[in-house]
Amino acid sequence: MKRIELDSVSVRFGDVQALDDVTTHLQSGEVLMLVGPNGAGKSTLLKVLLGLLDADTCTLRVDGQPVRVDKKFKSRLGYLPESVAFAESLTGRQVLGFFARARGVAKAQVDVVLARVGLAHAAKRAIRGYSRGMRQRLGLGIAILGDPDLLVLDEPTGGLDQEGLGVLWEVLGEVQQQGRMAILSSHDLTLLERRVDRICLLAGGKVRADASPVAMREMAALPVRVSFNFAGAMRDDISPFTAALDRAGLSTDVLPFTGGLTVCVRPSDLLRLLDVRGQFNGAVERVRVEEPGLDAVYEHLLENGSPAAAATSGRQASPPEVN
Amino acid sequence: MGRVARALIAHELLERARDRWVLVVSLLFGLLAVGTSLYARSAGASADALTGPSLVTLVSLLVPLVGGVLGHDAIVGERERNTLGLLLSLPVARGEVVLAKFVGRAIALAIAIGIGLGAAALVGGGAQTAVLAGLFLPTLGLGAAFLSLGILISTLTSRQVTAASLTVAVWFLFVFFYDLGLLGLLVATDGAIAQDVIAQLVYANPAGLFRVQMMARLAGPEVLEGLGMTVGLPPTWVSAAIWSAWIAVPVGLSALMLTYSRRLR
Question: Can you tell me the mean pLDDT for B198-214?
Fold first, then answer.
């Protein structure tokens, strides 16, 4: 599989429009993250993709060809449900063994995968003795059995400790390197920002934005905080610098502190700020640039929408993804 | 059955073995069967005359509960563990999942009944072996019918505790209240209802049909007259149809419901 497209997905539950003409896609080697508030439609979209929910309208295409979520399609995907639990009396190896048999994966792979998710030591332990994180790792192990073309991960970071997160990062890295695909839903934006290629922001069942994390920041155009620490005389008197900011039209959001100041500027004003800094080369001891967190970008896009939101939610306009 | 279904059957069996269900039910059957068998021996009675009828009474009370409880968490248990979606994301038809769960659990039930009756046959020996062997398939049929009902309840409910409560309620209904209801009907209508209608109503209940069939087989048809049933047993094909329906219809309905349910969680 090189490309999967979900086109015009609409799902209605009674009076609630869970998904409203949602269109997105996945490319080979891409990790797509679905984000959005509770009830935004993230899990609903994943369930449509898994064939666990019949959409009112949906066109699923694989490499340009319309397909149904049938046995053939399902044989190429691995799934990690949210907060998964397993039969308490079985051991990790027995649970994984069942899924290996069901998927036609060689028995020898069971121990390989257990080791890969860091559960080799607990392979013979009953699930009732597993912590939440261990259960999550076992779920991740089930999802990656047989290296499926498409990984569908619902809240994969839940309960994972640092080591478990490391396993997840490795899995996502392999997906990218091996040209496979992964779609995941999560609230951990900050945690996953650097691990995903694209973010699809859903709210009220509609796509608010669908772009790379970098492009998302550009869309939101939130102010960047730039802090300057001064040396010498300017430590006590920052007025020459503020005057220069005034002249450059950048004085609207200046916060002085002892020995320096912080300027909040829009990304498009950064070059002008660098010009100002250039005028005080000897006096500037240290510069620290703080980009807004992706959480802030998310909040902003959620409240205000992205300039491209209208285009992303409908099929009339071309998708505004930036990769 | 496909690869996933076969793996699921083995998995169901393993789970019943691991959670000691098979062991507990085997012990329960074993104790009841061995106890009845020893009592018959000590009383000097023939196997047909005492062991069989006593066991039939116990089995007709116990097996419906065991079968129902065995099935009650088949689907709702997966739902509560959030693994139903995981299971159905495998390359398998939804109906096959229900069928595989039924078959896997029915095999576990067969093993438990087999061990229990086998232990009694070992202790009782002689003529009792034939009686106990003859009880195996009908007992399994009775258990399978209630297993099937348990799976239907499991498919209909969204919480395991609700499924367990409904299963016990269904057990009470079929094993106790059904006969009481018929009795009440007779009294209320002052015997105006024809004997054959009452008999047909008794045969419509798997627990009732099992009791009557087994009693007639072990103690002779005259025992039915002693019970006031002058109509006689239904023809074999009717009995077979009733048993098949009780076993296949609930599990079939479960498979259909799961197949056509639009939304799963």
Answer: 88
Domain total of chain B: 1
Asked whether the predicted pLDDT for residue B11 surpasses 90, the reply is yes
Q: How far apart are CA A37 and CA A44, in angstroms?
A: 13
Nearest partner of B66 among B132, B133, B10, B150, judged by Cα: B150
Q: How far is B31 from chain A (nearest CA, A)?
A: 25
What ipTM score was computed for the predicted complex, to two decimals?
0.86
Chain A from 78 to 97: CB within 8 A of any B CB: 79, 81-90, 94
| Contact between A82 and B88 using a beta-carbon 8 Å cutoff | no
The answer to whether residue B102 sits within a structural domain is: yes
DSSP classification of residue A53: B
* Contact yes or no for B18 and A94 at CB 8 A: yes
Least CB-CB distance to A75: which of B7, B14, B91?
A: B91
pTM for the whole thing?
0.85
| A230-263 confidence digits (pLDDT tens) | 988 888 888 889 999 988 888 778 888 888 999 9
Task: Inspect the interface and report whether the beta carbons of B90 and A104 lie closer than 8 Å.
Answer: no
Q: Residue B171 sits in which domain range?
A: 3-260
Q: Give the closest-approach CA distance of B256 to chain A in angstroms.
A: 15
User: Which residues in chain B touch residue A85, judged by CB atoms under 8 angstroms apart?
Assistant: 80-83
Taking the alpha carbons at both ends of chain B, their separation in whole angstroms is 25
Pair B50, B38: CB distance under 8 Å:
no
**Considering the domain boundaries, does residue B216 fall inside one?**
yes
Give residue B118's identity as a one-letter amino acid code.
G
pLDDT tens digits along B117-130: 888 788 776 777 88
Tokens of A37: 């508030």
Which three-class secondary structure state does DSSP give residue A67?
Answer: strand
Q: Would B265 be classed as within a structural domain?
A: no
Please report whether residue B153 resides in a domain: yes
Structure tokens at B11: 């998995």
